[in-house]
Amino acid sequence: MSVAEVSRDRVEERLVALEDEYGGFPINQTTLAVPSDAYERAGERCERGIVDAYVQLYNDSDDVLLVERDGEWVVPHGEPATSERVVPGTEAAVREATGVGCSLTDLTRVTILGVRDEDHPDRPPVYRLVAVFVAEADESGSTDRVSAVDAAEGRGELRADAGDDRTPEGVRWHPTLPDSAVPMH
Question: If you average pLDDT over every residue of the chain, what do you get?
Answer without folding.
Answer: 85
